[in-house]
Amino acid sequence: MGFYDYSAEKMDGKEHSMEEYKGKVVIVVNTASKCGFTPQFKDLEELYLKYKDEGLEIVGFPCNQFASQDPGSNEEIQSFCQLNYGVSFDMYGKIDVNGNNAHPIYKYLKNEAKGALGNTIKWNFTKFLIDRDGKVVERYAPTVNPAKMEEKIKELLGNK
C-alpha cells in the first residue's frame, strides 16, 4: 500500500482519501495546541499560502499522546488553530501516532521514513514530506522549523 491508499476523518467528521492529494507535494504533521512547538502552525501556514497554488498541501493530525498537549475536542482544536494561527490547510480528527492504536497512515509513514527513535514518533510536530508521486522523501524532527523545509519543497514542486 502507498500513501494514496489511506484515508482519515477530517475535522468535519467525514472520511477523506489521501488520493485527494495525488499529484501534490504534501507535508503530513502531527500537531498539538499546547506544545512549545505550537507556533510552528504559523510557519506551516506561511509555507502553505506561499506554495499552495503550485501544488503544496499540508495535512495536520492533532495528537494527544505527548504530555497530553492536545486534550481538546476536534472542534476546540480546529477553532484554536484558526483563531490563533489562521490555519487554512487541512486538519484531520485527533489520532494516535504511536502504539497499538496508531492510525494506519502513521504506521505507513513511520515505516517509510524512520527517525532517531526508529519507528516511533518522538514528539509533536514531526513532519513527513511526500512528493507528487506519493513517495515519502524526508522526515523532519519536531525541532526543525518548517521554514527549513522550503528548499526541498521548492525542489519537489519543480522550482529549483
Automatic annotation (TrEMBL):
<comment type="similarity">
    <text>Belongs to the glutathione peroxidase family.</text>
</comment>
<dbReference type="InterPro" id="IPR036249">
    <property type="entry name" value="Thioredoxin-like_sf"/>
</dbReference>
<dbReference type="InterPro" id="IPR029759">
    <property type="entry name" value="GPX_AS"/>
</dbReference>
<feature type="domain" description="Thioredoxin">
    <location>
        <begin position="1"/>
        <end position="158"/>
    </location>
</feature>
<keyword id="KW-0560">Oxidoreductase</keyword>
<dbReference type="Pfam" id="PF00255">
    <property type="entry name" value="GSHPx"/>
</dbReference>
<dbReference type="InterPro" id="IPR029760">
    <property type="entry name" value="GPX_CS"/>
</dbReference>
<keyword id="KW-0575">Peroxidase</keyword>
<dbReference type="GO" id="GO:0004601">
    <property type="term" value="F:peroxidase activity"/>
</dbReference>
<dbReference type="GO" id="GO:0034599">
    <property type="term" value="P:cellular response to oxidative stress"/>
</dbReference>
<dbReference type="InterPro" id="IPR013766">
    <property type="entry name" value="Thioredoxin_domain"/>
</dbReference>
<feature type="active site">
    <location>
        <position position="35"/>
    </location>
</feature>
<protein>
    <recommendedName>
        <fullName>Glutathione peroxidase</fullName>
    </recommendedName>
</protein>
<dbReference type="InterPro" id="IPR000889">
    <property type="entry name" value="Glutathione_peroxidase"/>
</dbReference>
